[in-house]
C-alpha cells in the first residue's frame, strides 16, 4: 500500500483524534459544541477520504499514513 497524503481539514483531524480516544459521537459533539449530526457528517467524510467503512478503520489508516500519531492519542486522554 502506498503512503498517500490525505487532506483532512482541521475539524476532521480533531474529530478523528477524539474517535481514536474511544469517544462516542455524543461526547465528541459535547466536547466540540456541535451537533451529533455534524459529528456523523464529519466521520462519514473521514471514512470516505480513507476509503474505509468504520471509525476504527479510519483511525488505523490515519496512523499508518501519519495523519495522527500514537503520542497525540495517548497524551490527549
Largest sheet: none
- The SSE order reads HHHHH
Total number of beta strands: 0
Backbone CA Rg: 12 Å
Structure in words:
This protein is an all-alpha fold and 77 residues long. The chain has helices spanning 10-20, 25-32, 36-50, 55-64, 70-75. The termini are far apart.
Topology:
Elements: H1 10-20, H2 25-32, H3 36-50, H4 55-64, H5 70-75
The gist of it:
With about 80 residues, the protein is mainly α. It is built from five helices and no strands.
Give structural attributes.
77 residues, mainly alpha, 5 helices
Amino acid at each position: 500500500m502506498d503512503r498517500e497524503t490525505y487532506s483532512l481539514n482541521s475539524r476532521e483531524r480533531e474529530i478523528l483524534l477524539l474517535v481514536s480516544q474511544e469517544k462516542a459521537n455524543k461526547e465528541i459533539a459535547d466536547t466540540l459544541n456541535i451537533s451529533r449530526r455534524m459529528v456523523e457528517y464529519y466521520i462519514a467524510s473521514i471514512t470516505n477520504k480513507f476509503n474505509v467503512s468504520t471509525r476504527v478503520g479510519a483511525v488505523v489508516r490515519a496512523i499508518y499514513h501519519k495523519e495522527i500519531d500514537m503520542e497525540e492519542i495517548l497524551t490527549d486522554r
